Amino acid sequence: MSCWMRPAPAVRGSFPPLQRVEVEQLACCEPAGVGLQMMHWSTRSLALVARRRGIAPTLSHSTVALILREADLQPHRTRYWKTPTLDDTFRHKAAQVLWCYEQARQLAQRNEVVVCVDEKPNIQVLHGEQPVRPMQPGLIERREFEYVRRGTVNLLVKLVVHSGRMRSWHLERNNGECLRAVLPRLLGDHRDARRIHLIWDNAPSHTAGQTHDFLRTHYPHVRVLFTPAHASWLNQAELLLRAFAERYLRRGDWASRDEFVEHLDASWPEYNRFYAHPFTWSWTRAKMHSWVDRHLS
């Protein structure tokens, strides 16, 4: 008795090179370019259109997937970006921020601290209408689709760059008044520092004249650095929010807003115990200037 096994697909060896190139070219073309209304390709739609256009009469979506994998093409994926205005103002502001990241450890040794601050406003507090059904052997965790909104919370986070440690607060409103009420606690952790380098974006509560006057009057040792316009990605606190949300906000279920606030208050100390570390930041001032020069040339 013989045992038959399906041979592994070998696209490059068995699929005609010219047809393979035609499939790759079709994937690189917008569907509208061939008279279709769909907004993007999937392996199934590429296989269907390739068959109808006579590229390969018997082409399957699994073969299309192999062709795309070999060509390193991913037409099902997309990514957004927002381009800052690359000028001397961008260079100056970006260089100031990047200098702080490059020198964070040395500054800490001189009793100066670099902190990044950012907000995650209007987090919805959601409560499922049915209890979560926990994971079992052979079954993943299951959640009822319907939920009840229990309000929103504005989350403010601070990252100490040289240590990677964080702290968070919740703001009743995402405005300058509520921000200024928290600043004494935010900066009070570093009351013995000779200087505080405070990095944040250009949110209205940060750029408000009252916030500027408050810091200048009560905290003259604070050096405020704004990220360039449309370049808030230079703020390492955004990385912190992403890491924190993945571990402590995603898949959460809270019966009330107060319960969610209690969860936040208990979560940032745990993050510091388990996960806090300096973020690896490889984009230096030299790389930034080269990047700007390349885009302006």
Question: SSE layout and pairings?
Answer:
Layout: H1 11-14, H2 17-28, H3 43-52, H4 61-71, H5 88-102, H6 104-109, E1 112-128, E2 147-160, E3 166-171, H7 176-188, E4 195-200, H8 204-207, H9 209-218, E5 222-226, H10 236-248, H11 257-274, H12 285-296
Helix pairs in contact: 2-4, 3-4, 5-12
Quickly describe the structure.
One of its GO terms (molecular function) is endonuclease activity. It is built from 12 helices and 5 strands.
Describe the structure.
The protein is α/β, with parallel strands linked by helices. It has 2 domains: 11-71, no CATH class; 88-131 and 143-296, Nucleotidyltransferase, domain 5 (2-Layer Sandwich), CATH 3.30.420. Helix content is 43%, strand content 16%. It is built from 12 helices and 5 strands. It has helices spanning 11-14, 17-28, 43-52, 61-71, 88-102, 104-109, 176-188, 204-207, 209-218, 236-248, 257-274, 285-296; strands spanning 112-128, 147-160, 166-171, 195-200, 222-226. It has a 5-stranded mixed β-sheet with strand order 3-2-1-4-5, with helices on both faces. A hairpin with a 5-residue loop joins strand 2 (147-160) and strand 3 (166-171). The radius of gyration is 26 Å and the shape is globular. This is Endonuclease DDE. Keywords: Endonuclease, Hydrolase, Nuclease.
List keywords for this structure.
297 residues, alpha/beta, Nucleotidyltransferase, domain 5, 2 domains, five-stranded mixed beta sheet, 12 helices, 43% helix, globular, disordered N terminus, nucleic acid binding, Endonuclease DDE
